[in-house]
Amino acid sequence: METPNPNIKMWQGNVACAEGALAAGCRFFAGYPITPSSEIAEVLSLRLPKLGGNFIQMEDEIAAMGATIGASLGGVKAMTATSGPGFSLKQENIGFAAMAEIPCVVVNVQRGGPSTGLPTHAAQGDVMQARWGTHGDHPIIALAPGSVRETYDMTVKAFNLAEKYRTPVILLSDEIVGHLTEKVEVPPIESLGLTDRKKPTVPPEQYRPYEMDSSDIPPMANFGEGYRYHVTGLAHDETGFPTNNPEKIQAQLERLNRKIERYRDEIVEVEVQYTEDAEILVISFGSTARSVRRAVINAREQGIKAGLLRLKTIWPFPGKEIEAISASVRKIIVAEMNLGQLAHEVEWATRRSKPVVRINKINGEPITPNEIFNAIIRQD
Amino acid sequence: MAFRYEVRLSGSGGQGLILVGKVLAEAAAIYDGLNATQSQSYGPEARGGASRSEVIISDGDIDYPKAENIDILLALTQEACDKYIGDLKEGGVLIVDSQMVTKIPEGNFQVVAVPIIQSAVERLGKFLVSNIIALGIIIKLSGIVSEDSVKHAIRSRVPKGTEEINIKAFYTGIDLAQNWLDQHGPLKH
What we know:
The complex is a heterodimer of chains A (380) and B (189). Chain A is built from 13 helices and 15 strands.
């Protein structure tokens, strides 16, 4: 037996999410329990009060999203967590957070859908819902962890991005990663690069909450610190009050979407392995990417030039990265636990210049390494 | 080449098999310095229904965390045994509760039948600790992690106040496995 290192934990993905949130400075959680995300609420209900934070179980998911937004406006880093059906219910207020530019983190531990679907089984069917679940042209960031350690890191990153860009950030986990227990070496807090929202430097009477400054990200005043302003989901001008002025509406909404687009290179992350000489590229994300890695290693052992590309950021979509990495391959395989939500985007990113083979599974069972290996060796 | 050892713990929901999986994985990963993952698959019901918990132990990276080529399959119900036997590898070990699983499927594997649940009731007065007795049997038969590591992991994972009865249950399992080995001879690895 070895003496255990206190920084090495045996954590479930959902526990790592809760711990990552606390490390990032999250001090407010509102939620409504739903499998397979409930452990996040369970851990935070125990831990937040001891850190001077607040946990509240709301009457439903949209109220939980509303409470999360309110807490953030009050200056606290705030999060909610749910799964598919609850993610559907939160959409209206996710749109409000995007429109009113309120930093917050929304965790969706994906399960089988549609509707109540498969409560205890994994899926990756909320890729498009994460992007377009709420109506209207709005920016969004979505990250997809593939391991327990990465769930910790990405939860921290989600808070950092939310604060930096004044936007809701979706952590798109899945039942396999959420309920997987594995070894995690907890990183030192100094290495997390914690980010806080930019605050106004002007006195309250000069503060304009949606000012068009050169960064496209206006400073955000916390309620209770002497700054009074109006927050609405209606189209608004730089003061935060509703407006019907077409020029102002166009300018504000273009800025709203531009503030993520122009910084996409700082946001987007992908992982590549064995791609230097790859002839076959397998693209995936989340838990499915673990099967892809095994399949690609097996293929390499047999002399087959396969490589993998794992999307760590789903939105903004890493189209540019996919196009560059796939330039020299002859075949692309996209493996995902849905009916092709990612594959469609991959075809678009590569302008259909390569055959895109789809591996899709929606019965709650993971895609196995063998299923991917067979697609690698098949002559398409 | 890294080794990969696969354990599937199966039975019905509520038998504590997810906890046993977490204890086994923690013993391997935290106290024995190996890598381990624990995953699970169960139905939407709180009790009943076939349930499984899987532990992968390796000295290398573990990418795919689900069992496909099982070294040890524990089955505490006939339903779980019938459903999951297909993934047991050739020559692998099937451990069953001898009263719950009476029809052993045909196949090229070794069978260890032990009255796990009855022993929990008779020796410890609590059928609830059947899961930890099963863990003792697995550890004795496989030697995949050290007994000391498992004891530490049990203490860190079981509910407060139940540590001692669970440690006793663990030794009951080791004892049952030793009796089985004395009668049947060693397993082939």
